[in-house]
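User: ok so my PI wants both of these folded by tonight, can you help

Assistant: No problem, let's get them done. Here's the first:
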Amino acid sequence: MDRSADEPGQPTLLQGFDLRGPLPGGITAAATLPVARVLLETQVPHLDRLYDYLVPAELDATAVPGVRIRARFGGQELSGYLLERLAETDPGVKLQPLGKVVSTEIVLREDVLALCQAVAARYAGTVPDVIRSAIPPRMARVETEKTQDAVSAGTSVPDADPGTREPPSCLPAYDGGASYLQQLATGGSPRAVLTVIPNQPGGWPALITEAVRACRDSGRGALVVVPDARDLDRAAASLSAALGEADVARLSAEDGATSRYRAFLRIARGHAPVAVGTRSAAYAPVHDLGLVVLWEDQDSSHAEARAPYQHAREVLLLRAAQVGCALLVASSSRSAEAQRLVLTGWAPELMAPRAVLRAQAPRVTASSDSFEQERDPVLHAARLPRIAWSTAARALEHGPVLVQVARTGFLPAVRCERCREPARCTECAGPLALEHTHAVPGCRWCGRQAPGWTCQTCGGHQLRAAAIGADRTAEELGRAFPKVPVISATGEHPRLSVPSSPSLVVATPGAEPVAVGGYAAVLLLDGDRMLARDELRTGEEVLHRWLAAASLAKPSREGGVVVVAAADSDPVKALVRWDAAGFAERELGLRRDLGLPPAVRTAALSGPATAADAFAGALELHETVRLTGPVIEEDGVHRWLLFFPYGQGAQVTAELRRVKARASANRDPVVNVRVDAQGLL
């Protein structure tokens, strides 16, 4: 850590006066510990370091570690955080007085700072960028609210799922689950990875609540991170019903800045021992943290969209290692990263006995089965095969049916009827789509309508569907089953639950409502289209979407059926066997052979050609690091890829930070650095 006076951008300096006496300008230093070590909120990589300031006597009582401050730096006043008070600074360093203490609330605890520093190091980022995710913006009015008022004014908690008022016992159904709970309740810190058994009473929220309640029995706090608002509603309702609303704080940016900051202060002040929220909640300052829980770690919502693009799973793994607390990674499926934790022994698996799983899971049928192929001569051309139609017809006699489709909208993509070429906008070349049967084609990119469209290839004027969305599917099913209500559930039009009465529920992946008592049948359409994406994680992601939807069906003993309309493939076989762990292990082995993530770590460098090439050339890397590129992208951007073993991770990211800081100090064009980015390959 360099705080020398010769460094560009250092604070305006005072000459070396005796800090025990009066200083120029009538300033008097604090009588004890007159030096404040400060982290400033700057986005400039080469200024990501700590600085020392003089603490004036009038700020002595309020300038305590963890508070927000403002200080002069490089001719302007910047915000930041006071990290510690010292008796003296480094020899030769001359100090400028601290500007002011913005608030007396301690918002940056020492353990959270250490976590932010570890995350910045792992992702080759800056500490201020990580803290921006960890600490919500200040709402001054909230700080003056009384504690009782703050709780009652918080975001209301939805009603818990049926059966979760008194959470049932879920974890003992897993091999090792009872021991895991016992260790939590007696102050232990076990780690575990599990794939949730479907149709347990209360569902996955009850399972997580059971783990949190065991941790609370030991007198410790707990932290739960979920991917989105739908899951947050269910988790918060279950936790609040079991532990009491006063003990649970909900952290989500979607709740609004005021509610989020109010919940953050309840946690920071020690009034709420349990925090539940989306990805930024991974940094929640829970007192005496005993357990961290992550639900659906493979969900892309867990990845931060801003630099340094950290993933909530890795943040919680770092936190569990630093604090020494318990860890639970739970999902309806299994990511390759979670399976790696199991295989390395870092987090053992809580396995569901096959007998229990067979009793709880629905029966899964694939349209690619040889028996079905013989009975359905037009199977290859049908989007909804015969087995799916007949299953839906039977299931609708005694319950709702869920139909999962790949795309939202009506006809999200169309093509020329004559030559089959995709229909494109003449202004921006974006794909044309139809919003309903009699709609004018419109561009999905720029919104421009295309009346009288003409194919640029053959001159044709007629359009046909290239992809069918949820709205068109709902319309078709409504005509096929005219006496059954059709419900649409998408990200734009969410629906959290549906009744147990017969209905057709058409939903996109991730937006499936929960049916009271479970779905009589689940139809998984567009499987081949979903698996056709040429990405490294396509099979893993599609299997996760299928398992998440299939888990909503009733167990097979109650007639629950799942039909997947897709050609024979490894994900289809894994779904039929209900074996997410086996699929993840095979995927991980294949990627280990090919040297691909998560068997190895990755980094991507992208920017203007000259700057990106110079950045890559300046890296001093170990011989085990594989550097490939450049790939020339749009607008002349060059992209370089690094592949490196986990053992070299700290060295590689430190080198990336060094070169990035040097380029920043030289005012070179910005090169974007993304470490372990999802969707990279």
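One down. Here's the second:
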Amino acid sequence: MSDSTGGSESGGVAVAGQDTEADSEPPQQGPPLLPDFSCVEVGETSEEGAQPSAKRSRLSEEDQVLEKCVSEEMPSQENFAPSAQRELIQCGEENQGEKQVTALGKGVEKCHQNGDRGHDAPEEDLRPDDEHSDNGAADSPSVGQHLALDFTQNPQMLTGSWTEYSNLPENYLKGCKWAPDGSCILTNSADNVLRVYNLPPEIYSYSWDLLPEMSPVLRMAEGDTIYDYCWYPKMNSLEPDTCFLASSSRDNPVHVWDAFYGEVRASFRPYNHLDELTAAHSLCFSPDGAQLYCGFEKTVRVFYTERPGRDCEERPTIVKKQGQSGIISCFAFSPCQSVYACGSYSRCAGLYSCQDGSLLALLPTRHHGGLTHLLFSPDGNYLYTGGRKDSEILCWDLREPGKVVFSLKRNVATNQRIYFDLDQSGRYLLSGDTEGVVTVWDAQTAPPDCDEELLQPQLKFKAHWDCTNGVSIHPFMPLLATSSGQRQFPWPGDSEADSASDTEGGATVISQQEVQQDNALTVWWAGPLSPPAEESPNQKAAVLEA
């Protein structure tokens, strides 16, 4: 019944620390084995008088100078917003030059620089301070300027990571996800390693020609194939106790990883009816982060985040031979109601109550393949579903369960999970396909008859030469993250003998399969391509009065 933080249940936990940045120094000492999962403010002090974050006490001299500069510019951490991130970077450059942080220990401070409160920040905190408005407010695409997504033209590629996935053959990616606070990106790849990339600070300026290739600040190695992974929904890089994520891999328990240190915080161990450890096929935190939902065959198990171990609530999806069959492959929670949706490999989706897990509605089987991804619209009225080897994303009207409003066509010819994503307004839906193309639909321009007509895309652009399996939209900036790659199978007749003999004039003929291989993480700018015009003092005063 006791919690396991890195025992024999996982073959990859022991090497997690070894797979971190090779040229960086690890922290002087590890974090507590069983940290408190409650959200603790950085400025709070525990009953013993110690700071709850072990990392805050390990700041280098340079970081202390930087933190002193931040404290002078910003009275409290509660007002730390993306506009203040820019001030922090400028202030750091004036005191110590350009701060390049790649080591695991200093990577935490970079995460602090990029941290923010997202949509919870008040509007006045998102505007640049008056004393710094003349020093770059017009040439910095921060959230304070309320830049929106612009798909009237193709997004512009900013940077990415390619070298990281070229060390091993066929180390293709399996998706990417922005952190809830927008400070970093999480990726999954075929080498069973989860990687965390910090958002480059150069993104906040329009000098994008200076952006270097991204390198991961954390590597977290699982023991086997990773089935699913997800961020803690209340994650905030200013609160270290909230910076963690969960992952599930074959023949291993569900691991909770510390996003500051890259070590296992805790484990959730699901057992089957034979008292054997079984792996979860899908994961999702509840919106408040108090519970972790895990999908199994015909069963959903609910763990409590603050209580690691094997104790859980079992919610079968089939009762008296009625309900949703198959392996529960994906989850989605309604943003407005106490309802969650489950997708299964039996090609159907079900709606359940969060209180007791009772089945509310079972949507008709309309997909041609098992469901791999679900998304609710921000108003909770619509549910988007997509499956493997299925060329359609269906939009369901939950006010009339069973009614398909429209379908979105994409090219999905494999069993690979192809993610799609919605922006915060629910207007734009983006998805990749097996040809490397990213398609953008405007969901607010539904067909006039609403008779399950095909919704035409607004924009298509070639993001990768190989399968684009992951698309993730930044929480508040006009940024996209895409991941690419897929398992490659040799073409008929391709062999070492054939490749050695297929020469023309001494030049080796490159096979079509080699040309199409593209394993990369890429960050795109999908906003205005020029700095917004500087507002006059009278315009600013009018905005403040309004």
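The radius of gyration is 24 Å. The helical segments are 61-73, 82-96, 104-114, 496-501, 512-516, 537-545. Good luck tonight!
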